[in-house]
Amino acid sequence: MKAGFAKVLGLALALALALSGCNLIEVDAKMQADEDIAKVDKAYSAVAASYDGGEVTIGEAMGDFNSSYNQTNYMYYYYFGYQMTESDVQMLAEDVLKQHVRAEIVAAKFDEANSLDDEELEQVASDAQSYYESAKASALESVEGKNDAEREERARVLLRQTGMDYDSYYANLLISAKEDKMEELLRGEIAELSDEELQAAYDAKVAEQEASYTDGSSFESAMTGDDAIVCWRPDGYRTVKHILLIPGDEIKSAYTDAVSALEDAQSDLDTLAAELEAANDGEIEEGERSAEEVQAEIDAIEATVPSLETAVKAAEQACLDDVKASTDEIYEKLEAGESFEDLIAEYGEDPGMQNEPTATRGYYVSAASTNWESNFRDAAMALNQVGEYTAEPVVSGSGVHIIQYTADVLGGEVDLDEVRDALYAEALEDAQNQHCEDTITAWVDGANVSYNVDAFMAVFAEE
User: Fold this and answer.
1) Which pLDDT score, from 0 to 100, does residue 284 have?
2) What is the mean pLDDT of residues 355-381?
3) Calpha distance 33→31 (Å, rounded)
4) Which of 178, 240, 391, 401 lies 20 to 30 Å from 161 when distance is taken between CA atoms?
5) Which residues contact 335 (CB under 8 A, 6 or more apart)?
């Protein structure tokens, strides 16, 4: 029912214009279109859902259904290579009807004591006209006719059949506008939080983050965003900043290829070690290799490891050589007392060191970090004191780094005062949204809603 939900999403996937008795070759185009629309309106007048004080006809829900159907069917085909099943379509119809009933009930509650002003009504009409014009253009491309007038009439039938004519758009957008206003009023009924409610929100977030941040990777990811409200931190973290220099594309690619080849070999050896252990522990089943065969493959791969390691070292040195002039300058300036932040700004090529929040607080790293390449992580954790930077550049798949240890991170609960303002705003919004949803759910639950999805599906299949 939302305005965006009513947009045309590909009339090429809409229902085909196949009404019984539709022959516009010998019959006046407008007369035939009027007859066909009358048939559509008769079929669409059937009730698909009812509730205390109102009902939803098939026609009222058809526009939303077709838009959702077109989009969903396209997504199924694009991502999975198949179209929706009959069961999928029925579930979609149920969902659309539920949304429509909800919207009508909320809009009716709005009408009890409120009304849209002239500007809001004008916006509804403008949006409906805009969506209709877009749908009409698509419909005209989808129909055939011996002249423009005939195509116009066929397009008019198709738009009514798919629920994408002006009247359908206006009716749905009007309900949607009232629904939005009522939800806004409901959210406004919660104006503030008590200290107890804020403390409860803080306690809940501490418990949630203590559970989810235990492995560290979720914490590190959260700390790269500017909207994270962190109330609990794992132990063992520090923050670092770095000056990233990126070698030429071919040199950098050669390094990542060499590292990938070595990692693949090491991964194969791990897999083979498990296979060898299984072969040594029991009888060989049909189709499985003997321990001797597995060991032979291990020996062959191990023989390549020294050359792969040599290739990595050579590629690493090539990266260092490519940016050596810049790293030499940076170290000279650091030794002369220039600030690390100024040199990040002058030389650094990592956008994360230019954009907040990481530009100010740096990256979070621990000895157990898995979000960072091991070279970067180990070098960052090898620094002994805040302010210290790596004595030599460090190479990773991202480029060449000079890393500085910027601060220790205290593990455990973050003091509520540190996050009070941001947490209050988030918790208040959550409380407002929950109050809105709870109220609407109670309205819908108390409206004795009944659905006739079978009737909707029968008309959909016929048309």
Assistant:
1) 66
2) 92
3) 5
4) 178
5) none
Which of the two residues, 29 and 449, has the higher pLDDT score?
A: 449
pTM of the model: 0.74
Cα 359 to the center of its chain, rounded Å: 25
Q: Could you tell me if 127 and 91 are in contact, meaning their C-beta atoms sit under 8 angstroms apart?
A: no
**Mutual orientation of helices 86-113 and 166-188 as an angle, nearest 10°?**
60
CA 320: distance to chain centroid? 38
Query: Looking at this protein, which amino acid is placed at residue 174?
Result: L
Average predicted confidence (pLDDT) for the chain:
90
The confidence score (pLDDT) of residue 224 equals: 76
Question: In the 3-class helix/strand/coil scheme, how is 242-291 assigned residue by residue?
Answer: EEEECCCHHHHHHHHHHHHHHHHHHHHHHHHHHHHHHHHHCCCCCCCCCH
Q: What is the pLDDT of residues 396-425, one digit of tens each?
A: 999 999 999 999 999 999 999 999 999 999
Helix axes 324-335, 291-322, angle to 10 degrees: 70
Residue 169 structure tokens = 């758009």
Sheet with 363-365, strands from edge to edge, namely 363-365, 238-245, 399-408, 394-396
- Report the distance separating Cα 161 and Cα 37, nearest Å: 8
Angstrom distance (rounded) from CA 202 to CA 104: 37
**% of residues, the chain, pLDDT over 70:** 93
Mean pLDDT of 225-230: 80
Q: How does pLDDT run across 43-98, given as a tens digit for each residue?
A: 999 999 999 999 999 999 999 999 899 899 888 888 888 888 889 999 999 999 99
Which residues lie below 8 Å from residue 67, measured CB to CB, with a gap of 6+?
5, 6, 7, 8, 9, 164
